[in-house]
Amino acid sequence: MQPAGLLVMAVSVGTVTALFLWCVWLVLTRPSGEVEQGPDDHRRS
Amino acid sequence: MAPPPRDSWGSRLGVILAVAGSAVGLGNFIRFPGQAAQFGGGAFMIAYAISFLIIGLPIGWAEWAMGRYAGQRGYHSAAGVFHCLVPWRGSKYIGVIGAIIPLVIFMYYVAIEAWTLGYTVRFVRAIFDPTLRFATVTDSQAYFGRFVGSAADGSALRPDLDSLLPWLAVVFVINLVLIYRGISAGIQKVCEIGMPVLIVLSLLVLARVLTLGTPDPAFPDRNVSTGLGYMWNPGKTLVVGEDGRTIAEVVDADAVRQRERADAMAAATPGARVERRTMLSQLADPDLWLAAAGQIFFSLSVGFGVILVYASYVGPRDDIVLSGLTASATNEFCEVALGGLITLPAAVAFLGVAGVAGQGTFGLGFNVLPMVFSAMPAGSLFGAMFFFVLFIAAITSSLSMLQPGIALLEEALGIGRKGSVGLLGTLTALGTGFVAWFSRDLKALDTLDFWVGTFLIFVLAMIQIVLFGWAFGIERGWEELHRGGAIRLPRFFRPIFRYVCPGFLVTIFVLWFLENVVGLGRAEPSSYVADLFEKGEPVAWLSIGVVLVVSVGLAVTIASSKRYADDEA
Question: Among partner residues A4, A22, A36, which is closest to B42 by beta-carbon distance?
Answer without folding.
Answer: A4
